[in-house]
Design brief:
- This protein has 177 residues and is of the alpha+beta class.
- The chain has a single domain, classed as SMI1/KNR4-like (3-Layer(aba) Sandwich), CATH 3.40.1580.
- It is 37% helix and 21% strand.
- It is built from six helices and eight strands, in the order E-H-E-H-H-E-E-H-E-E-E-E-H-H.
- Strands 1-2-3-4-5-6-7-8 form an eight-stranded antiparallel β-sheet.
- The longest helix is centred in the N-terminal third of the chain and has 13 residues.
- It is globular.
């Protein structure tokens, strides 16, 4: 007997409270700002957060320890969708139901989501805690979700909208490189 899919509850981005101590604070703050001010160019869907206890139960059921950054992310939003990159980080329920990647059993990966819309997977390397973007076997490694968001902002949003906060962010990111 199959379970009926229940879509995650959307969180109103106007009321979203990004934890100031989260590594991804600046990136999410910018993305929320852009989604509010340029809804035709930037779509950000946030989902209702989960509690610390729900994350603990997920970790116990799956025998997977999430990084502190991912714990913070799920306490802020239980997954999200961002366009124009089509980045989707799945909810904990969806992650738990996804089978392990079968193309390479030498790697200890957990499915987190996908992006671009052509089968590019977003994975957590459980051995290194790095984020992996696997595009049909070609892999790109990111230190964490924050780094992935930084790259998405630079690759997909630079030049898409004329916005002072975006330009300031990109200037700061360029200076850091």
């Amino acid at each position: 007997m199959s379970e009926n899919y229940i879509p995650p509850v959307r969180q109103d981005i106007n009321n979203a409270v990004i934890p100031k101590n989260a590594e991804f604070y600046e990136e999410m703050k910018l993305l929320v700002h852009l989604a509010k001010n340029y809804p035709d160019d930037v779509e950000l869907r946030l989902f209702a957060p989960v509690s610390e206890e729900e994350i603990d139960r997920f970790e116990k059921r799956t025998n997977i320890k999430l990084t502190d950054e991912l714990r913070d992310l799920f306490k802020f939003t239980n997954g999200f969708y961002l366009s124009p990159s089509n980045l989707e980080i799945s909810t904990l329920d969806q992650i738990e139901k996804m089978p392990d990647p079968e193309w390479d059993n030498t790697k200890n990966y957990m499915f987190l989501g996908d992006m671009i819309g052509d089968g590019e997977l977003v994975l957590l390397d459980l051995d290194t805690n790095k984020i992996i973007a696997n595009d049909h076997g070609d892999e790109e490694e990111y230190d964490d979700i924050t780094t992935l968001l930084e790259c998405i902002i630079a690759d997909f949003l630079d030049g898409e909208v004329e916005d002072d906060e975006l330009e300031e962010y990109l200037d700061g990111w360029d200076d850091a490189e």
